[in-house]
Input
Amino acid sequence: MTAIEYNRLKEEIARHMELYYNQDAPEISDAEYDALMRTLKAAEKEHPEWITPDSPSQRVGESAKRESGVKITHTVPMLSIEDLFTKEDVTAWTEKVLRTRPGCTFSAETHIDGLSMTVRAGSAPDGGMDPPLCETRGDGFIGEDVTANALMIENLPRKIDLPYDSLELRGEVYMTHDAFDRYNAIQEENGKKPAANPRNLAAGTLKQLDPAVTRERGLSIFIFNVQAGPAELMKSHTAALDILERAGVPVVKHRLCRTADDVIAAIDEIGAMRGELPYDIDGAVIKIDEIARRSDFPSGSKYSSGHIAYKYPPEERVVVTDDIVTAVGRNGKLTFTGVFHDRETGLPARLCGTSVSRATLHNQDYINEMSIGIGGAYLLYKSGEIIPKLNGCVTPPETVFKAPELCPKCGAPLVREPDTADIRCLNSACPAQVTRNISYFASLSCMNILGLGETIVDALVKEGFLADCADIYSLKERRTELIEKGIIGKEKNTDKILEAIEKSKSADPVRLLTGLGIRNVGTSASKELMKEFGTIERLESAAYEELIAIADIGPTTAERIRDFFDNPVNRQLIADLRAAGVNMSMPEDTAAGTELQGMTVVVTGTLPTLGRREATEYIERHGGKCSGSVSKKTDLLVAGEAAGSKLIKAQELGIRIIDEEELRRICNE
Output
């Protein structure tokens, strides 16, 4: 390799690092990235004089994003782990350790495919340890405070039942397959781009400016290291993890190994169970268990001493297409799924420990480009950290698949949208769309009808109780029939849901507008629209020119709003909802409330009567702007029970701190 080629390679890897760490939008797989890094390191080994501090081999990872959160310096650097790609290299490393320090033992652990986060906790006056301060890795030395979002992670304890003065833990934040699939299903239904993989979505979710978004998407964490703590946690790594686990802290799967053979056996065991785990892993981490001995085995300035990671190789199989299944999403978008069998075995393909028989085919353009059709043979690729995808055509089919011209559910003509690859059914009464439309209308972010989930909605649609969203409000008239058929449940559960339906009538029209499912009109756009028009009736008659004059409402969205309200079926739906008593108007004081005008307000802890979403809506109704983090620009901090690091930061910055009662006094309530 020449020096010019080396510099080009550095630039290419640096670009991919930026995409992966800072933009959460990688263009290549981990395996391809690792191959580039191996080439770079080989060149630097041959020409050490080429190495400079800005080389990707000398950098840890991302840069902390100033706009996403407050920068924070780590008390213990959060370094990377050196990757090894063959079991022979793993054996050589473990044998070297044992030769140098006889009697050393090792911990073999799953390498979760997520993003690293440090959790700091201190002793609480009432015993145990107080809510933590949480920070991302950043460049290994400076990260950002993501405590507000981290406290939305369901399995991260709010209080750790251990009698220590201070504790610093490092963990991996990740997203389960179920949470990832749920998010992508919603994206597909809303006609939006799905996330590429759980790791990227987890990274973007942890750095959201609105903690409510983090909570809704659902993150999880495993602790994999004690960074700093009392002596009993700083001797044996596996013993420390066991102590944490007994205290209710979620810790990574780990196994104590004494020999190189034990380590390889553990790697094989972890590899075999990859397909059974509800989350992605892309390798196994091997650590010297005796923490004090790790410093005897440094691996360079960017790597943690006494650690290595074995990366499982990507897997690829030749599969044959058996079928291409078309389905219709909530917004009428046609989706394509390929059904395959392994050409060699005739069974589902075994990739990375999982049985794979299906893969998303995206759209007709993708199908044409890949020459996908029944009987065609293709390379099916899957690495531990990514979803299965086709990676090239091996044997073309006799005929490339062509999308149907009529909706597979209702028979209505399908239409390809101009300048896109999307094909849609425009029949809003299409059975495939009805259940999803009604479920979305009743969901938490819309009308918040607790208990009326997709399973119950589907049953009600099939039994003829529901044909559109307005029918929800006539269910009370069929209470006896519902109880007799047991669709919702017995009398108690039926009444509970009917009560939730009745309560939803008084929801503000921002929720109603969001629930109507107009494409491109989510919660943010709904807020802007209702702030401008005040009532659904005024919005219904708004001209295109009035719509595009509103911030964040572009020509495409304006057209879709007009298309929705110009449709006679939708106009009748609005009339039926109005007749049922559903609120169509913003409260009188919503637009007039200016008590918090121009103020940035942060909410922390648990308030007596307002949940986080309700508190945000309350503050915005009175002219304020809600933020998820404390900074010099913060005007007020509203603190409730168990207020954590944001309260401390506000005190340090001299920001005015109030409780919910004082907030209401300021707002004249």
User: Anything to note?
Assistant: Confidence is low (pLDDT under 50) at residues 61-68. The chain is about 35% helix and 20% strand. The CA atoms of residues 116 and 547 lie 43 Å apart.
